[in-house]
Each structure stands twice: as structure tokens, then as C-alpha cells.
Design brief:
Layout: H1 41-52, H2 58-61, H3 66-94, H4 97-127, H5 129-135
Helix pairs in contact: 1-3, 3-4, 4-5
Length: 144
Amino acid sequence: MPQGRRTGPGQDDGGRGACGQGRFRCCAWPAGSAAFGGGFAFTLAATSIIGISGNSVRYAQKLVTPKETLDCDLAAEQQARALYSEARACCNEVGDYISMKLFEALMADEEGHIDFPETQLDLCDRLGAERYAQLNATTMDEAE
């Protein structure tokens, strides 16, 4: 990519530098650019947030069980980790090592996010759905 040329999401890069099996357009700012600290992490992160948010929409569409909610949360976290991994590889490919480190940190953080629903699903399986729901219920005098 020529120095000084910025290519962002939705802009044609002429097929050069596309990352992530076509999921990411080449949106790297030229090396050393002042914009976003010389990387494209913020553009990529915004894309990932928009892409992942679709899982949470299911909550508003119908009533779901706690297990279904945890399954959906786990799927969203796993999707985020996969997307961050893909973004990390893309950053490495274009030589954006600062953003690559950011995505490595995000991937490490996602491990904690994945652990919670996995642990809760295991607990739900061991206790049964009814007891699990009871364990997490708030009494009426404590509810908001």
C-alpha cells in the first residue's frame, strides 16, 4: 500500500492487503502514521463490536432460559476471541505490531470472559435448571 494512502472499511483497496479471509478490508494506516497511533485497531475493534452484537439481540426477541442465555453469552465470547485472533493475524500480516499487541491483550481478557459462562453452564448442568435459577434469583425485597 503506498505511503499516505488510507483505506478504510467499505473502501476499495484494489484487492491489496485484504486480511481475515475477506472479513476485513485492508484498513491499515501507513506505518508511522499519527492516526490511531500508526495502527488500525480501533477500526477493527469497532467492526468486531458491530459484528458480535447480533447475539445479544436474541434476548429481546423471546423469553429464554438461563441456560440459553449462558449459551448465547458463551457463543458471543468465543466469537469475539476468534475475531480478535483473526485481527491479530491480520495486524501481523501488515506489520502493525502495536495493534497486534492490543489484540493479544484482548484475547487474554476474553479468556476470563469465556470462563464465566463455561463455569455457570457446568453449574447449571450439575444443579439442574430449576435449582440454578433459584440460586441466582433475587428476593422481591432486594429486587430493583
